[in-house]
Design brief:
Length: 148
């Protein structure tokens, strides 16, 4: 086990390391694309979080649940947005995620706005790119879409 990886599960560690061979073999051998780690996160969450597009696509194709929220209430789309990753935002939206889903009174736009106060000047360009992408795709604040 890699002590640098936050996950205790070998599949999640392989995703973090970028080792697609492990992911492919695991799925080929019938491994679950939804196996959780000690943080209750699924492999597709880890793939999105670490910008592993090909791995995320293979996990989704094998039945990975892109909509599931961990015990920490996060889902893959949240990881893409919180990491300000336009490529993974596109992946999630292309997989059917609702850009304006409201969870616990917030949309991803609300969460990004709230998080802006905690980013550095060096992070601002990446945050702005993700913000502009989401707004350009029609993301709204929870107050504009209603609550669940």
């Amino acid at each position: 086990m890699n002590p640098q990886s936050e996950s205790d599960h070998f599949l999640h560690q392989a995703i973090v390391a970028g080792d697609i061979t492990v992911v492919v073999n695991y799925l080929k051998e019938g491994g679950s694309p939804n196996v959780t780690d000690k943080y209750d996160c699924e492999p597709i969450f880890t793939a999105v979080k670490y910008d592993r597009l090909e791995m995320a696509a293979r996990l989704l194709e094998a039945g990975g649940d892109i909509f599931r929220r961990s015990k920490f209430r996060s889902a893959a789309f949240g990881a893409a947005c919180w990491n300000w990753n336009p490529r993974m935002i596109d992946f999630c939206l292309g997989s059917g995620v609702d850009i304006n889903a409201v969870h616990e009174g917030r949309t991803v736009l609300d969460s990004l706005a709230h998080g802006k106060a905690h980013i550095s000047d060096a992070q601002l360009p990446a945050w702005t790119t993700a913000w502009d992408k989401l707004v350009g795709l029609g993301a709204k604040f929870a107050s504009a879409v209603g609550t669940v």
